[in-house]
């Protein structure tokens, strides 16, 4: 195997120095769960709450990423794995810049999420299982995906004919079938404070 022609160049400003001027630590809040569980709604609510606290954030949404960076990938297991791998690299760069990155991806495979944790660095990664029963997700069905999958129009739909592997040891589990959005958002803010991302007064 030939040696890579590329050399890693360390920046003069460290990740710690970038974070020091922001008033909060960097983090990646990884929201995972079935389609319709409430990931995107909760991600937007959390970003709004953090923005009000003058935190530096960026939200990565699954559909948006598929429109640009990862539009060349399909929904096969290999395509899903590469989708999450690329997103993990982007998250690491944003965390190095000192941001709180919020993601909303089904990310159905545990190994892929564990790989992102390793890429980002465990101390900066919060895995959040956004949980709701499949029946509830199908009733919500905001994109009409379950109906299309049940009708045979879509193959490889997570929860229908493709598996979802729930996190084994997430930092937080949020049941959106039993808690409202303000309550879920508050739980996320508390988790960020406990994790050391936010000053305790901002929770």
From TrEMBL:
Catalysis performed (reactions): adenosine 5'-phosphosulfate + ATP = 3'-phosphoadenylyl sulfate + ADP + H(+)
Binding-site residues for ATP, renumbered to this chain: 33-40
GO molecular function: kinase activity
UniProt domain APS kinase: residue ranges: 26-175
Keyword DNA-binding included in the entry's annotation: no
Pathway where this protein functions: Sulfur metabolism; hydrogen sulfide biosynthesis; sulfite from sulfate: step 2/3
InterPro entries on file: APS, APS_kinase_dom, P-loop_NTPase
CDD domains assigned: APSK
EC identifiers of the protein: 2.7.1.25
Highest taxon, organism lineage: Bacteria
Family stated for the protein in its record: Belongs to the APS kinase family.
PANTHER family: BIFUNCTIONAL 3'-PHOSPHOADENOSINE 5'-PHOSPHOSULFATE SYNTHASE, PAPS SYNTHETASE, ISOFORM D
UniProt function note: Catalyzes the synthesis of activated sulfate.
Protein name, per record: Adenylyl-sulfate kinase
Lineage: Bacteria, Pseudomonadati, Pseudomonadota, Gammaproteobacteria, Chromatiales
